[in-house]
Design a protein that fits this description.
This protein has about 450 residues and is mainly alpha-helical. About 70% of the residues lie in helices and about 5% in strands. It has 20 helices and four strands. It is globular, with a radius of gyration of 26 Å.
Length: about 450
């Protein structure tokens, strides 16, 4: 049993943790940017841009991973560490290599044989122990574990190498330079040196040696026509300002002010200081920075979104409404901005404004069904109107997204009982009950 546990621990260490256990950062501007910088690479990979989702994880480590099909998770630490948009594109190209290679689906190809080795070792050790050969039994255990780990690590290194080469193809197909990819690998190599991670033993690693990866990729990238192509200036400008926004949101305010001191009035600096002041409870200072942003570009929906958010969260609901309406007008297909305006309208408790909020929030969930906060706001509207069945359905949607299977089941039952049979909402309540029922059954099995 100890061998199997050891192998399982190894497997879990190599796999990314579930996104639900980490902080997911939702931001309309950042998600639109990630889609835009990746679209040509996604097409080059033969994937549908509508099916590949990019998720920002609030985690300071420099990491990215793929899980759950075609979902690319990017840690905030990686975004902050990147110097330019091309470096970020190099990382995304590698992750697309994992998706196109079906590496998530093929994980058992590596884990399965490794598990068999451990099982055989366990049986051999048991036989040796049964006849009194204790030392021989322990040796078999040790050899089995080493063989299983070695085989599994070889499998993951092969997948990483394949993802590197596929990513190089996708960058080339998109007409993007591989210099950013090389620069980022060198940054990782520098971190490994500082952390005293051995650079001469590949066999104990999940990834090939950074030096090997760099040399293999340079041989490919330098031959490509796009090698000397600089990053797109417009995308680089967007990268810089979003990086500033992210630093303002995730870093300590003191560090933000050191990175973007007063008097630095670039979009990135204004964004960073606005978020830092807002998070640290200085709404007037935050508003001053947001106002400077809006002055830079009065029709920018994301600047207006920030100004409206600060007003709303500072208790100035009436003042936030015209600002957020302008933001929605400038970005009519951004569900998160719609949800923010809907939240402001619901907060007002004015019956006329409630009527304005409902179609807005319904449009938001039609564009993005996976925002629990939007469902919560819709549920408030339905509840105030006395539509208990649809309020329960909205709650079921929210609980389902939040991983609360019991809450989803209970509210879906309430909704189903009050909705006309055969209607789309009734069928949806049925679907949520089925999914929640499966989740609850799995929870029971784990407890046994």
């Amino acid at each position: 049993m100890r061998i199997l546990v050891s192998l399982l621990a190894l497997t879990l260490a190599l796999l990314p943790g579930p996104a639900a256990a980490q902080s997911i950062l939702r931001d309309a501007e950042t998600e639109a940017f990630l889609r835009d910088i990746s679209r040509d690479m996604v097409v080059s990979a033969g994937l549908d841009p509508r099916s590949v989702q990019f998720v920002l994880v609030g985690d300071p480590s420099i990491n990215a991973f793929v899980t759950g099909g075609q979902n690319v998770f990017i840690h905030s630490g990686l975004f902050v560490a990147a110097d330019n948009v091309n470096e970020l594109q190099g990382v995304i190209a590698h992750e697309l290599g994992h998706i196109s290679g079906g590496h998530n689906v093929r994980f058992n190809e590596g884990a399965g044989p490794a598990t068999k080795i451990s099982l055989l070792s366990l049986l051999g050790a048991a036989a040796a122990l049964a006849v009194g050969a204790g030392e021989a039994g322990m040796a078999i255990l040790g050899l089995g574990t080493a063989a299983a780990q070695g085989r599994f690590l070889a499998f993951t290194r092969d997948q990483e190498s394949r993802a590197d080469q596929a990513g190089a193809q996708f960058l080339s197909g998109a007409g993007l330079s591989g210099k950013g990819s090389i620069a980022f690998f060198r940054r990782i190599q520098g971190l490994e040196y500082r952390l005293a991670i051995p650079q001469n033993n590949e066999y104990a690693r999940t990834h090939p040696l950074s030096s090997t990866r760099i040399n293999n990729l340079i041989a490919v990238y330098e031959k490509d026509a796009a090698w000397d192509k600089p990053p797109n200036p417009a995308l680089q400008a967007r990268f810089d300002r979003i990086k500033g926004k992210l630093i303002g949101f995730v870093e300590e305010p003191g560090r933000v002010m050191q990175t973007y001191p007063e008097g630095t009035n670039t979009a990135a600096a204004l964004y960073a200081r606005a978020y830092a002041w807002h998070r640290s409870g200085h709404p007037e200072l935050a508003m001053a920075e947001a106002a400077k942003l809006v002055a830079l570009s009065p029709n920018d929906p994301y600047y207006l979104e920030l100004e409206g958010q600060i007003l709303l969260e500072s208790g100035k609901v009436p003042e936030s409404l015209p600002v957020l309406r302008r933001a929605v007008e400038r970005a009519p297909f951004e569900p998160m901005i719609m949800t923010l305006l809907g939240h402001a309208l619901v907060t007002s408790e004015d019956a006329t404004l409630q009527a304005e909020a409902e179609p807005l929030l319904r449009k938001a969930v039609s564009l993005d069904r996976e925002n629990p906060f939007t469902w919560y706001q819709l549920g408030v509207i339905y509840d105030r109107r006395g539509d208990k069945a649809r309020a329960a359905l909205a709650a079921a949607e929210r609980f389902s997204l939040e991983g609360n299977a019991m809450g989803a089941m209970m509210n879906a039952r309430l909704a189903r009982a009050g909705l006309p049979a055969g209607t789309p909402d009734f069928i949806r309540a049925d679907d949520i009950m089925l999914v929640a029922g499966d989740a609850l059954e799995q929870q029971k099995r784990k407890k046994r």
